[in-house]
Design goal:
This protein is an alpha/beta fold and 261 residues long. It has three domains: 7-50, no CATH class; 59-159, Response regulator (Rossmann fold, 3-Layer(aba) Sandwich); 163-259, Response regulator (Rossmann fold). The protein is built from eleven helices and eight strands. Strands 2-1-3-4-5 form a five-stranded parallel beta sheet, sandwiched between helices. It has a three-stranded parallel beta sheet with strand order 7-6-8, sandwiched between helices. The longest helix has 16 residues, at 192-207. The protein is elongated, with a radius of gyration of 25 Å.
């Protein structure tokens, strides 16, 4: 047999309707176990593969989720994205990953490109969204969820930790263990996670009448955190330091132990 095998050819050979073949290859659609086994066996024999792109054009549903990430060097993200991808695949969706920079122009370009792919939804991981882009997605009927970022927009869904409370608890812990000269190494200052963690941390210190002893910026990168630690501990070093995320904290610990003794 030459050329691309169609669903109608599979249906004819299997002795079922074309809609039955379609149901077999549609996640979540109903078909008897006997029909599924028979259709899939014959489809394999004939070399049939469903054309999901054509189906998406007809149904208006691509079953693709666009995932926008700013960076992957932080080991938190590969693990989180693996779990997200697996969970979506169990529901019959597939993830299309797009890399975006931190600047608005780069993010805007990526979002426009994603919308061209007719995705069913968008997840942005550690990417800040402007209200203009959010409205563009709403107008296109594409739902969006922010991951590990929040936005001052009540219409924007977000999944993140309580960064303000977390920062506050870290301040309380360091004070309870007797530290007074406390430093803070900040992440990228355009990030809501950075802003909220530092605000909570400072609130915890201020409540106890303690001022921040030293502050540097690591920009959520290991190299940036290494240099920040060197600057902070070069003169009047603190006796404790809160680093804005684990990725930077690893670099700070290595610097303190291996370079600064």
């Amino acid at each position: 047999m030459s050329g691309r095998i169609t669903s109608s050819e599979v249906a004819k050979r299997a002795g079922v309707s074309q809609s039955a073949v379609s149901r077999v290859f549609t996640p979540g659609a109903s078909a008897s176990a006997k029909t599924v086994e028979k259709v899939r066996r014959i489809a394999d024999e004939m070399g049939y593969r469903p054309n999901f792109i054509a189906r998406a054009m007809v149904s208006g549903k691509s079953r693709i989720i666009g995932l926008v990430v700013a960076y992957l060097e932080n080991q938190f993200y590969p693990e989180a994205l693996e779990k997200l991808s697996n969970a979506l695949q169990e529901k019959g969706y597939h993830v299309l990953i797009f890399m975006a920079g931190k600047d608005n122009a780069s993010i805007e370009h990526v979002i426009e490109e994603i919308l061209d792919y007719q995705v069913d939804g968008i997840v942005t991981a550690s990417v800040a969204m402007s209200s203009t882009l959010a409205n563009r997605c709403r107008a296109a009927g594409v739902p969006m969820v922010l991951f590990n970022r929040s936005q001052d927009d009540t219409g924007m869904s977000a999944v993140t930790s309580d960064n303000h409370a977390g920062g506050q608890k870290i301040a309380q812990h360091l004070l309870a263990t007797g530290h007074q000269r406390i430093g803070y190494i900040a992440g990228w200052e355009g990030a809501s996670t950075q802003r909220d963690r530092e605000a909570g941390f400072r609130a915890g210190l201020n409540a106890a009448g303690v001022a921040l002893h030293a502050r540097e910026i690591g920009n959520f990168t290991m190299n940036g955190a290494t240099e920040a630690a060197r600057r902070m501990f070069a003169h009047s070093p603190p006796d404790a330091v809160f680093v804005a995320n684990d990725h930077m904290a690893l670099a700070v610990m290595d610097t303190l132990r291996l370079s600064l003794g």
